[in-house]
DUF1315 family protein
Amino acid sequence: MNIEQMLAVLDPDIVGRLKTAIEIGKWPNGVALTKEQREICMQAVYAWEMKHLPETERSGYIDRGTKEEGEECDDDHHKNEPEFKPIRFV
């Protein structure tokens, strides 16, 4: 079975079950995934998501937000931190 055939068989329900198996390390029947099965499942989930989901809904997506030119962070706690001082090992 090639990747295109595999992706044609997958649907959101199956992908959800694969993701759960990856997360808990077990199949729904309680049998542990082998390292190879886990890797194959991750590849299948990633390939399916790349084909069917927008970037913001894919596994591992990190929303980095946006800033306008010159815009600064609202959080200024870093301004009150002391100067960096290296640790000295004795």
